Amino acid sequence: MTLLAKRCFKGMILGLMLFVAAAGDCPMDGNMGMDPDDPNNPNDPNGADFAAVLTAIGVHVQGRLACGDGIIVYTAINANQTPFGPDYIVPGDTAGRGIANADDYDADSFAVTGKKIALVRPADVGVTIYDTDTDTKVDIPTTDIRLKNIPINNYDAGHIQADGGYVATQNDANSVADGFVVKVIDITGANPVVIPFTTNPGGSDQDTEQVMVDAETKTVVAIRNNVIYVYDIDNPGNAPTEFDVSGMGGIENEEQFAYDDGMIIYYENNTDRNVYVLDVTSAANTPVMLNGDGSTSANGRFAMRDGSYGYFYRSTPATGSGNAAGIGTLPNDTTPIIGSCDTIVGDLTCCGRFSHGETMASGILNNQPVWFIGGQDDIGGGDPLQYSVGTSVWMTLTDPNDPDDNLSVGDVVTNEAGNCLVFKHEINNDTSLGYVVLDAN
User: Fold this and answer.
1) Backbone angles phi, psi at 102, to 5 degrees
2) Are residues 63 and 211 in the same domain?
3) pLDDT tens-digit profile of 146-189?
4) Widest CA span of the chain, in angstroms?
5) Cα(191)–Cα(138) distance, rounded to whole angstroms?
6) Looking at the domain assignment, is residue 99 inside a domain?
């Protein structure tokens, strides 16, 4: 491996610096050997710095993370490292600010938009909206919102989802007073407003499998029995637009699909696990397969941002941390850019491979998408934090606590604005909260 660059990242706590290295001996686009801070290098996001902060705030190793508008929400822990409940910080904090009676809410099921947190009450499977600005809560009656269930794992498909001041929910039709399954909660005002969609998916009271909301197009997407239902928030009484994809492999519901600017990305429901994107803004559109070269996709999370997509692809050789990231921008990149690189060796040593990870997120840096990948849950697996600005070049960061190793992280997550990245890292074998505040311009 060739060490290409060492970039100082400002603002690191403990006065430590992070250094940037780029991959070698793998398919690139002709920029190997260039200084990443060189303004003529198209792989560098204009030489911009961003500060990575490693706190000592404890977070559960399998807990949930989320970013909002200037807030970071996470699964707090008890003294014995078991999950306690949701908590949050503002960048710069050294301890959680606390949510009253946090242990009344599910530790791994919450959604964040703006400065508000949608909390889930296990006692009655209801939803509470917490405003961090005013430190006030509103319990939504279960006659209006009674979730169909609470998924067990923190990133299972089917959790409540939020975007742009809206929270999408899947309800038990036999428990809510109106019998409607898909509802969105408008939390842009002082008081939450529940908006029910008056046509249940499939015209029945049966469960949906997952939902997403896109504030840009003011739509909610629900999945049931390999059919995609698209609801108009401004016209909740209208029947949804339907896309039946059962004849194209269906939709696999173990992974939460991603939805942004009217475009969804999902795995098909068969052993090939091909990945499809679908523009749901027109009923005439049909799904487009991304990995059309016949290779199979691996398990992993999706990310979408401003017409760009990312997911994990089965690479060759499938070693290191397991999955290679495939990224691209539509409509041109229907075959993803895959940086299937060699094992990370040389001056920086680490288990893992360039472009390989298990979790993915996308932010905005200098007005363009920037992609982040890391591990999942157990950080001891050696999945380094890596980033790319849309090419096959992935860059890593050294661990400030071990200059001979890369910074390993788990569960990379960004917010809807693209200016916050949050992740898990380890301090003395304890899982802690880390974050980056991006200059999203």
Assistant:
1) -60, -30
2) no
3) 999 998 888 788 899 999 999 999 999 999 999 999 999 999 99
4) 64
5) 8
6) no
